[in-house]
Every structure is written in C-alpha cells, then in structure tokens.
Specification:
The protein has about 290 residues and is mostly helical. It has eleven helices and no strands. Helix 1 crosses helix 10, helix 2 crosses helix 5 and helix 4 packs across helix 5.
Length: about 290
C-alpha cells in the first residue's frame, strides 16, 4: 500500500480499515508489547476502584449518596492511577500506530517488527509527551472561549503527533505545520475523525457491554456485592476496547496526514523523481480531486 497518496473521503476510510486488517498481526503485537503493560495495569486498578465505589455504602458523616461516592472516587489512589494511565495510554497507542506506519513506509513489503516499532516510539516519545501537553493546554484554553475555538484547535492539532513522528520535528515547529497542512481541509479532517470514531465505537461496544451490565446490576441491587475479580475482568475488556478505538482513530488521522502532505507537497512524485534509475521505483498514485473532502 502506498501511504502518501491523495484520497477522497471514502478512500481514506477504506485505507484505514484495509491497513488495520492487513497489518492486524504485526500492529496487534506492537500494541500488545508497547501499550499492553500500561493497559493491563490500568484495567486492574480501574477494576479495583470500580469494585470499591460500587460496594460503597454511604454514611451520614460524609453526606449524600452522590457526594459520598464522588468524594470516595476522587480520594481513591486506584482512581488517580487509572486516570493518569487513561491519559497516557492513548498517547502511547497513537505513537505505536504512527511508528508502525513509519517502519512500513521505510520498508514497503517487508516485515514490521516490534523492535523496529519500539525504536521509533523511543525516538519520538520525549517530543511527543511535550507536544501532547502543549496541545492539551491550548485546547483547554480554547474551550474556555465559548468551546468552539477549542473544537477547532483539537481538530487542527490532531495532526500534531503524526507530524512529530514522521517529520522528526521539534515541538516549536508543529503548530505552524499543523495549520499549514489543514488549511482549507478542516471540515474534511473533522468529518473523517467523526466517522472513524463512530466506526471504532461500534467495534468496541462489545468490550464495554459487560462493565455496563455489571454496574447496572449492582445499582439495581440484583447483585448485592461486586467481586473484585469480576470488576477487574470487565475493566480489562473496556480497556482493550479503548485501545482499539484509539488505534483506529490514529490510523484514520494518519491517512489524512498522508493525503494532505501529498496534496501540498507531492511527496510521492518527489520520491519517484529521486528514485529515477533505481531498479524498482515507487508507483505514482493517481491524483484524485478530494472535492469537499
């Protein structure tokens, strides 16, 4: 598959699903080895926190039902650890997906090993963490101004991590690069994120059903107490679903990035020119008009 190619809206969706299906083994192994441990820890501590909160019986000294539950949740060390990991895991999943794509692009048709993906993740991790924090701060500030600026910036900076990985750029340059790439293509990027997120949510729904069912049974007193192991298992399933959602959304954003780079700079054409005289020049993709998307 040629990554740098102009694609219309439907082709970007198809490319996302096609890559996920064809690379499911190597990408799945990379996600397991790189993001698996944090996800496992997050699932366990989240399960323990859920079991503790759902089995809570409020007392007058703490206050009302909702106040007591909220107080217990916020003061729980398990909840704090689960929250911290919940913020870190999507970053790690996105880095793994983008690094997998980078290794695939560097060695088309060759195997994509976990070691090669991990090397790319390590190379970009520091810059990615700083970028993630800067993006989060800018989006939060934007949200404070009537929400709309925050939504606009969140779509623009959805390209930040893939830019950091593929272009080895510094944190100071990614802002201008994101605005340059997304110019006149904000709506197509927004629409792609919405559609891919919806598809990912549907696929992950089965992983979230057990946790929701258990919580409902405890709330309705059908299950008087919640065994910790049941809560841990359901939380682990939910965590797996969140990893799948994050990975699929990251793939969709990556193919939008490839599309925009090809549209702005003709990356594949330049690569073909550079490879003149080589035995196997890369194919030149057709240039489709993206239209509104």
């Amino acid at each position: 598959m040629n990554l740098y190619q102009q694609r219309d809206f439907g082709e970007k969706i198809n490319a996302t699903i096609q890559y996920a299906v064809k690379q499911i083994r190597s990408l799945g192994m990379a996600l397991l080895y790189i993001a698996g441990a944090p996800a496992l820890i997050a699932g366990i501590v989240s399960g323990i926190a859920s079991a503790t909160i759902l089995s809570y019986r409020p007392t007058v000294s703490i206050g009302t039902d909702s106040t007591g539950i909220l107080f217990r949740q916020l003061s729980s060390p398990y909840y704090i650890v689960a929250l911290a990991l919940g913020l870190f895991i999507p970053l790690l999943v996105s880095l793994t997906v983008y690094s997998h794509l980078k290794v695939y692009h560097r060695n088309p048709g060759g195997p994509v090993t976990v070691e090669a993906v991990w090397a790319e993740v390590q190379a970009a991790l520091g810059r990615a963490v700083v970028t993630w924090l800067v993006v989060g701060l800018l989006v939060i500030v934007g949200m404070l101004f009537f929400i709309i600026p925050g939504i606009y910036l969140s779509v623009v900076f959805s390209l930040a991590l893939v830019t950091v990985v593929f272009e080895d750029g510094s944190v100071g340059t990614f802002i201008g690069r994101c605005f340059d790439l997304i110019r006149d293509k904000w709506w197509s990027t927004f629409g792609l994120i919405i559609i891919v997120s919806f598809i990912a949510y549907i696929l992950s729904f089965a992983f979230n059903v057990p946790a929701a069912a258990v919580g409902m049974m405890v709330s309705l007193k059908v299950m008087p107490s919640l065994p910790v192991y049941v809560s841990i298992l359901t939380s682990l399933l939910s965590t797996i679903g969140s990893v799948l959602v994050s990975a699929l959304i990251a793939l969709g954003i990556a193919f939008q990035y490839f599309n925009l780079v090809e549209l702005r700079e003709g990356h594949s054409i330049l690569s073909a020119i550079d490879s003149i005289g080589s035995a196997t020049p890369p194919p030149i993709p057709r240039a489709n008009d993206e239209g509104d998307y």
